[in-house]
Design brief:
The protein is of the alpha+beta class. It contains 1 helix and 2 strands. The longest helix has 16 residues.
Length: about 55
């Protein structure tokens, strides 16, 4: 991301787990294409759901 971009003009995605929009962060600059979740809690929640459904819980 080049410097000088306003926060309202940053790219956005929708979280796979909670379906809320989230905006680009500098720490995601290298992997923005691979970012799916807005937070660690959403990632953990989604893994837990898939684990339970896969193992029949």
């Amino acid at each position: 991301m080049p410097k000088g971009i306003k926060k309202k003009n940053l790219p956005q995605k929708t979280c796979v787990s909670c379906n809320r929009p989230f905006t680009w962060r500098k720490k995601w600059a290298r992997d923005w294409e691979h970012v799916k979740y807005c937070s660690h809690s959403c990632r953990k929640h989604n893994r837990l759901i898939h684990f339970k459904s896969y193992n029949g819980y």
